[in-house]
Amino acid sequence: MKLASATFLFALLPAFSSAFAPCKTFGIVRSKSALSVGSDPNVDLGGNAWKPDSEKMGSTDTGDYFPEGYDPNEEIAFQAGMMGSQATAGDRGGPQLPGMENLGADAVLMGGIEQNTDIPAGMEFIPSSVPDGTVEMNVAASSAGSEIELSVKPVCMTFEDYYAAFAPGSHPSLSVSPATGRMDRRGGEATVLTISCSPGGQAGNFEGDLVINLPEDNSKICYKVKAMSF
Q: At a CB cut-off of 8 Å and minimum separation 6, what does 6 contact?
């Protein structure tokens, strides 16, 4: 029985192997075709020849409407106020608001910011190791004294109250006024201080350290003052 089954399987083996053998009658046929677009008379290869009419074509980023009586030549220029409040050149104020051109000319001020006219108690005037500038002046010993003006440029971003005095150890003949005030913001007007020297008949070289405290900004400006009394 086993011999008959084995003979039957060997007889079927050629039939199964021929079923999975590659067929030589089916081949892959490759063909080539070329597409000639330029030869088609219905194809336009010239591109888009449209161009805008510069005499009629206006700006495309303007609004669709304007208020009645609009005149672009009388409107505020777009660059007005562009430099900001810290600009060092040009017009910092910007245009006047309508109806407020004369504001403050005949106004009655009430309230507002109060400025301290006295140096706060306990404030120290300590000069920095390197002064921001040097002031030199000459004064006759027999005279009542001499004065010189010092122009201090503002260094803070906003308006700041200042307190000025000579540091301890400075010659007593030196003084400064006004001792208190409000300094303009950076790029604004300079603060003018008057330095006085009253030698009282003494001759010699008098030196002192002028300290300008800016407590709100936590900073100070220092000058070395040298007065020669002859």
A: none
